Amino acid sequence: MKQVLxxxxxxxxxxxxxxxxxxxxxxxxxxKRKSRLSASKAxxxxxxxxxxxxxxxxxxxxxxKAVKVEEMRLYSQRNLLSxxxxxxxxxxxxxxxxxxxQSLLESELETxxxxxxxxxxxxxxxxxxxxxxxxYLVHYKCQDDVKSRFFDxxxxxxxxxxxxxxxxxxxxxESAYSENFLxxxxxxxxxxxxxxxQKHGHTFLSSKGYVMLFPIDRDxxxxxxxxxxxxxxxxxxTNLTYLNRELxxxxxxxxxxxxxxxxxxxxxxxxxxxxxxEVVE
Length: 281
Known about the structure:
Its cofactor is FAD. The chain is of the alpha+beta class. It is built from 6 helices and 17 strands.
């Protein structure tokens, strides 16, 4: 039986691993983190992603745990400009974005992967891949021990700084946009602007900057603003004060409380020069 190694236990790696297991392929996922991050990180599942996840025939809770968001409302100077629907109302599968925190999705996918016979090794960092006549000998460090294991195929699902891509000498073009964004998952305790921030997405444009409100789950809202900040390493109270001040400056009298997660993010565009190689040096 063919054996496949997937490096990276994010949504892509776990989805691929589950599908391979369902097709009868023996599959191992290696993840360098010791434990899963609790931060929500990505959160929007578009129609095609939802369709692919349902092919897994696994109970990952999209219908019961995700918040269905059917439209984004766009404002200028607090005046409503348009309602942008995410799909045709006649197509129930494609008319919503499912707001589903990545941390929750990864947990559900890990359960699906393991229940289909997959194996996850955490705290496992690949550092060398040797090509052999029939496959690849993978060298990795796992819980302070150096180990080696043979696989027929190795798949890199390990993100922007992919070690698999580096070891395979695959170039990656990358460009960064100039804007930074402050992203916060928090409770909106009060808001003077009369909007349903737990049902629809809202984007506010003004001369002072950009604000987006989007449901992240049934209690929390994701707030995104453009910012000159380069990091969010200050105390929670300092970040909260900054966020409330910036929202007020942009014409939104919003009181934010209980910040679950806050981070500064930049936006990048990356594209690998190729997606497969037969030999890893």
